[in-house]
Design goal:
Elements (H helix, E strand, L loop, with lengths): L1 H12 L3 H16 L7 E6 L4 E6 L5 H5 L4 H16 L4 E5 L1
Helix pairs in contact: 2-4
Length: 95
């Protein structure tokens, strides 16, 4: 089992920081959503900032945003930490 965990870690190291951030947001959103197949995260780079667009089924928007936007703010906080580590600027938009 430990060998498999090491393989996953190695695969994660091969990803770009943005790919890693995109996967993190997608993972969190899929875990919250009733319809995880409708979750998608796309990226857009305007030169100075990268925008991650999270798209979920209409019935899941409330779950992903959370009461008073707490879940969305938590995801943005995690992104901020990852972005500082990668020396980039990232914004999360929920569509």
């Amino acid at each position: 089992m430990a060998e498999h965990d090491d393989e996953v870690m190695v695969d994660g190291d091969d990803m770009s920081p943005i790919d890693s951030m995109r996967e993190m947001i997608e993972y969190i959103a899929r875990a919250l959503a009733s319809n995880p197949d409708a979750v998608s995260v796309t990226e857009e780079d305007d030169g100075e900032r990268i925008f991650l667009h999270l798209s979920v089924d209409d019935q899941d928007k409330g779950k992903v945003i959370g009461r008073d936007g707490r879940v969305a703010q938590s995801m943005r906080s995690l992104l901020r930490v990852a972005a500082v580590k990668a020396d980039t600027r990232v914004s999360l938009e929920i569509d």
